[in-house]
């Protein structure tokens, strides 16, 4: 089982890189990092002979060779430099990049380091006179939705609703005929798994097969749409778009959001209630500004932003890709290379989110909230006092021990007595000196002496000189910290240190100071953990050095803190939302994406291509309400199209536009634009009802086609883009797990509430499992669950041996097989028949019955059940 889990983790890493193989990823995630951190040295100035502003320059490389080995981040100098694992190259000079920035560059390299054609950095920055041409406005996605006339078809007897006219007309134009209708048992299984993510029960199948009414299938669809399981299934698809997770983006440890599940439950409830989609959109952008006396009606929707990875550029990307199918984040460094999106549009939207801030909305009485907040404030104050006390003692101890550096060095070679030296610190020195390779040069003379066998006097001189260096660097670090405190204090608007222009040690000196005095830390991604400094005794390690009043003070603080924490009740429930800042402001454009090279302030407004004439500045606070109204406007050419395309995609496995979050020039053109516009116009006509879209799609003849192969059709349209038949689709990760629990009788139907890890003991639906930004559940990742660190437009479907190994060997599947076996009763023949009806929704054939009876005679019912659950017929939807 351990081998399988390790392979699952490998599959997860491969999945994370899957989204990095497009120019879109480069423009939105990679180029901004390069522009902000690298271009000042590696464009015209060509430090180290290296430019990083074009594909040709990167291929050519610099004095150290090419910086990138496509597909191999571990072998790439650029990755080694930004991870600061290279013995010589540590970039950028001002300090390490953020974890997510390092991860993005590594993903890009792993996926092949795609550099979009024509994408260069040098040239004129975005200019104020950017003009969208008539040809750009004529692009299909920017034309207003107009309900097209319904085409006529020759085979009108097959038509059930206008969707069929649009599809069959395309087929007839190519001389093709649709496949025959699917059998009723196949149709009910398809519909049930589509709408609620669970297979139908034998009784449900029997009732449908025995219902001769013309509207028998319509009754099935209505029943499924009314099921509370519908929201669990379709709400999860939206959570992909919303990049939902239950924790913060932290590379070193789990840091859960205590109330994230309230957004997840709100989304599920919104789908179950068939909340109009335009209201659904507005609630997630500006729910705090919509009229309502119920705090649970709209406010939880703001989790779309409150639970984000907390990067403003990411919020622009999630907004425009999620609601509009536009890649506006690609205009962060320059005007969009492919779509009519000026750089100013990006900063206009970033201004909206920069003018918003996090806000927790209590769901408890005022007195309860005030009492808990006061107690928590007292705990925080005492924690700070304890932390400062320990830090001060640790720092002072480090200075005392540093003053004995020469003696420790000499004692490590038995050139000085060690009786009165701290034994643990001496042991640390002995271990530290076992490896000559360091990230600083200051021990080089000592190791050279050791190599040649220096004299006692030479070692004593080297030890004294090294001690002076230790004390000087420690003093310099204190001065740098003090200067930064003063600088930040003089400029309180700079509340994010990552955005402040701070003082720092050189990289070599910092690495030296870290080895001597720093606490243990993990690097970006948690791949490598540094040891604690030789002189560092933080936490409880400081205890043995303290006595008298100092030790009594430490014990007193710890006891008082423990007492307060024990007395603190669980926190009251609250909603994680955002609100407008007190002083909303426009953001200044960053020339070439460089935050340190700012241009003029850009008024907040809608993307220019969606406006007639010049965009009108937002005037209502941050602009979120104006933005929400503009996106949800029925006249907006994208919003309705994007959503009906997402719905169509999940029913048929492929959208009418096959790039669901990119309706721009780099996206795939619609296979049937008239059908897309028909669905979009009907969507708005029906009050933005998502359930009505489902109903119209599923009651079409196209949805009910069989998956039979017609050689003549395959020759003309082998990928079935014209929809002449149904296509098999593999269950997604959640449906597979939930269906295993369902047929075994182990599924816990409890809905909503806090998440739990999806271990073998958790029998609830997967949508209620804990979703981590740091490390996905191994089973979910293996079956292509999306990376929650960015908006996901569709599931990447893989078919790899690891998946089969999991189904054959995992304890979870074994337990569900045993549960299924326990549900079977009667004679052996009856048990085989019951197994088929529960797992496949049908009776076994005579041959299958005989094979089953022969199998259980040689084996057992648990193994037989496992064989059935491992079949393609169970794991795939026909």
Structure, described:
- This protein is mainly alpha-helical and 878 residues long.
- The chain contains 36 helices and 6 strands.
- It is globular.
- Residues 1-19, 119-127, 491-499 and 524-528 have low confidence and may be disordered.
Brief rundown of the structure:
This protein has 878 residues and is mainly alpha-helical. Helices cover 49% and strands 3% of the residues.
Please summarize the sheet with the most strands: 2 strands, antiparallel
Strand portion, in percent? under 5%
Structural class: mainly alpha
Reading side by side through the largest sheet, how are the strands ordered?
1-2
Q: Which secondary structure elements does this structure contain, and how are they paired or packed?
A:
Elements lengths: L1 H16 L5 H15 L17 H6 L16 H7 L15 H12 L23 H4 L24 H12 L10 H13 L5 H8 L6 H11 L1 H14 L19 H12 L4 H10 L16 H4 L5 H13 L18 H12 L1 E7 L3 H37 L2 H8 L10 H10 L11 H9 L3 H35 L16 H11 L30 H20 L6 E7 L6 E4 L7 E5 L21 H8 L7 H14 L20 H13 L4 H9 L12 H6 L12 E2 L2 H12 L33 H5 L18 H9 L1 H12 L5 H13 L5 H13 L2 H9 L2 H4 E2 L1
Antiparallel strand pairs: 1-2, 3-4, 5-6
Helix pairs in contact: 1-31, 2-5, 8-10, 11-12, 13-24, 15-16, 17-23, 18-19, 18-21, 21-22, 25-26, 25-27, 29-32, 32-35
Notable characteristics:
878 residues; mainly alpha; two-stranded antiparallel sheet; 49% helix; 3% strand; disordered N terminus
């Amino acid at each position: 089982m351990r081998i399988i889990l390790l392979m699952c983790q490998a599959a997860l890493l491969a999945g994370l890189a899957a989204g990095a193989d497009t120019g879109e990823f480069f423009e939105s995630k990679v180029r901004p990092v390069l522009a902000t951190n690298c271009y000042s040295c590696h464009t015209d100035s060509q430090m180290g002979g290296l430019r990083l502003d074009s594909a040709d320059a990167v291929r050519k490389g610099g004095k150290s060779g090419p910086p990138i080995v496509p597909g191999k981040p571990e072998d790439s100098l650029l990755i080694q430099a930004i991870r600061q694992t290279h013995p010589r190259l540590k970039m950028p000079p001002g300090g390490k990049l953020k974890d997510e920035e390092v991860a993005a560059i590594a993903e890009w390299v792993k996926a092949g380091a795609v550099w979009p054609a024509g994408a260069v950095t040098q040239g004129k920055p975005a200019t104020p006179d950017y003009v969208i041409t008539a040809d750009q406005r004529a692009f299909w996605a920017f034309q207003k939705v107009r309900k097209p006339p319904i085409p006529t078809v020759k085979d009108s007897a097959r038509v059930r609703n206008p969707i069929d006219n649009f599809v069959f007309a395309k087929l007839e134009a190519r001389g093709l005929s649709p496949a025959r209708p699917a059998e009723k048992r196949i149709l009910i299984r398809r519909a049930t798994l589509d709408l609620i993510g669970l297979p139908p029960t034998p009784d449900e199948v029997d009732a449908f097969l025995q219902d001769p009414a013309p509207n028998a299938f319509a009754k099935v669809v209505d029943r499924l749409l009314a099921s509370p399981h519908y929201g669990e299934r379709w709400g999860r698809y939206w959570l992909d778009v919303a990049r939902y997770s239950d924790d913060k983006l932290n590379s070193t440890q789990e840091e859960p959001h205590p109330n994230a599940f309230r957004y997840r439950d709100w989304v599920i409830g919104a789908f179950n209630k068939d909340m109009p989609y335009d209201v659904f959109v507005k609630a997630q952008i500006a729910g705090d500004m919509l009229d309502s006396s119920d705090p649970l009606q709209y406010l939880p929707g703001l989790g779309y932003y409150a639970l984000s990875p907390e990067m403003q550029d990411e919020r622009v990307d999630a907004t425009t890709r999620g609601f509009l199918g536009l890649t506006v984040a690609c205009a962060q460094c320059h005007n969009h290379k492919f779509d009519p999106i000026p750089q100013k549009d990006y900063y206009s939207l970033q201004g909206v989110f920069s003018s918003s801030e996090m806000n927790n909305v209590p769901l408890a009485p005022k007195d309860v909230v005030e009492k808990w907040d006061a107690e928590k404030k007292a705990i925080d104050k005492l924690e700070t006092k304890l932390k400062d006390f320990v830090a001060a003692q640790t720092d002072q101890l480090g200075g005392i021990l540093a003053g004995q550096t020469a003696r420790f060095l000499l004692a490590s070679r038995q050139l000085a007595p060690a009786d009165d030296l701290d034994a643990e610190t001496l042991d640390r020195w002995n271990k530290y000196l076992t490896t000559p390779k360091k990230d600083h040069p200051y021990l080089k003379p000592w190791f050279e002496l050791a190599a040649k066998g220096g004299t006692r006097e030479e070692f004593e001189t080297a030890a004294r000189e090294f001690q002076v260096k230790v004390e000087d660097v420690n003093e310099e670090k204190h001065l740098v910290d003090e200067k930064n405190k003063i600088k930040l204090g003089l400029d309180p608007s700079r509340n994010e240190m990552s955005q402040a222009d701070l003082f720092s040690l050189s990289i070599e000196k910092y690495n030296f100071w870290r080895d001597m005095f720093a606490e243990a830390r993990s690097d970006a991604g948690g791949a490598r953990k540094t040891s604690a400094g030789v002189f560092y005794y933080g936490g409880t390690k400081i205890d043995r050095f303290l006595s008298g009043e100092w030790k009594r003070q430490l014990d007193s603080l710890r006891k008082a803190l423990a007492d307060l924490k024990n007395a603190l009740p669980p926190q009251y429930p609250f909603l994680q939302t955002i609100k407008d800042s007190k002083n909303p402001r426009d953001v200044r454009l960053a020339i070439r994406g460089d935050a340190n090279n700012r241009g003029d302030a850009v008024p907040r407004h809608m993307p220019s291509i969606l406006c007639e004439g010049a965009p009108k500045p937002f005037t209502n606070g941050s602009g979120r309400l104006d933005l929400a109204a503009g996106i949800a406007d029925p006249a907006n050419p994208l919003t309705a199209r994007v959503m009906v395309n997402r719905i169509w995609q999940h029913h048929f496995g492929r959208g009418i536009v096959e790039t669901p979050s990119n309706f721009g020039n780099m996206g795939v053109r619609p296979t049937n634009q008239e059908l897309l516009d028909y669905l979009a116009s009907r969507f708005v006509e029906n009050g933005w009802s998502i359930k009505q879209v489902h109903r119209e799609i599923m009651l079409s003849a196209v949805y009910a086609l069989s998956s039979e192969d017609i050689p003549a059709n395959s020759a003309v349209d082998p990928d079935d883009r014209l929809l002449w038949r149904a296509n098999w689709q593999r269950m997604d990760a959640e449906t597979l797990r939930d269906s295993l629990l369902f047929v075994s009788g182990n599924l816990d139907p409890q809905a909503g509430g806090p998440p739990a890890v999806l271990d073998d003991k958790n029998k609830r639906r997967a949508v209620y499992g804990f979703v981590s930004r740091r490390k996905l559940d191994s089973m979910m990742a293996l079956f292509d669950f999306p990376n929650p660190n960015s908006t996901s437009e569709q599931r990447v479907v893989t078919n790899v041996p690891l998946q089969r190994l999991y189904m054959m060997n995992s304890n979870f599947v074994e337990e569900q097989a045993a549960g299924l076996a326990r549900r079977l009763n009667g004679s052996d023949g009856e048990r085989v028949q019951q197994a088929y009806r529960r797992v496949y929704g049908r009776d076994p054939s005579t041959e299958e019955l005989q094979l089953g009876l022969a199998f259980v005679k040689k084996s057992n019912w648990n193994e037989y059940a496992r064989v059935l659950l491992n079949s393609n017929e169970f794991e795939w939807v026909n």
